[in-house]
Amino acid sequence: MLLGVGVVQIITRDGFDLDRHALSQLSLGPWGFVQIANFLVTGALVIAAARGLRGVPGAVWGPRLLAGFGAGMLVAAGVATVPGLGSFGLRALVVSTVQLAALALLCAKALRAPAPSH
User: Fold this and answer.
1) pLDDT band at 118 (very low <50, low <70, confident <90, very high)
2) What parts of the sequence cross the membrane (predicted)?
3) 38: domain range?
4) Using only C-alpha atoms, what is the Rg of the chain?
5) What are the tens digits of pLDDT across the range 19-31?
6) Phi (first) and psi of residue 45, to 5 degrees
7) Which of 80, 101, 99 is nearest to 91 (CA)?
8) What gap in Å lies between CA 39 and CA 51, rounded to an integer?
9) pLDDT tens digits for range 44-54
10) How far is it, in rounded angstroms, from Cα 82 to Cα 102?
């Protein structure tokens, strides 16, 4: 959802260029509410998926990491993007930090997991 709505906005927004602009900068301007809603809906859907995975046997870290990613998207919706900072705005910093932490935890969990037996 996040990328699909983002791609549609990139195509339809005059002057938007991924070489110069961060995806979160789509939340600026008169159509900015679309990207903010995109962050909110994506976050809510990811958290719902994480809740659904809680009942899967052996699924401990996956649902937690997904919930963390979803929470990061909800936070991103509430953090203002500063025009002109490119991908170094506060929103990008918050989202990148949450996503990097989730990826690090996922990698650490994968390295500690026992090899599957066939």
Assistant:
1) low
2) 33-53, 65-82, 88-108
3) 2-112
4) 17
5) 877 777 888 888 9
6) -65, -40
7) 80
8) 18
9) 999 999 999 88
10) 25
3-state secondary structure the chain: CHHHHHHHHHHHCCCCCCCCCCHHHHHCCCCHHHHHHHHHHHHHHHHHHHHHHCCCCCCCHHHHHHHHHHHHHHHHHHCCCCCCCHHHCHHHHHHHHHHHHHHHHHHHHHHHCCCCCC
> Six-digit token pair at 42?
């994506």
Structure tokens at 21: 């602009």
Rounded CA separation 40/18 (Å): 22
Tokens 């929470």 belong to 71
Query: Is 42 within 8 Å of 72 (Cβ atoms)?
Result: no
Does 118 fall in a domain?
A: no
Q: How many domains does the chain have?
A: 1
Would you say residue 117 lies in a domain? no
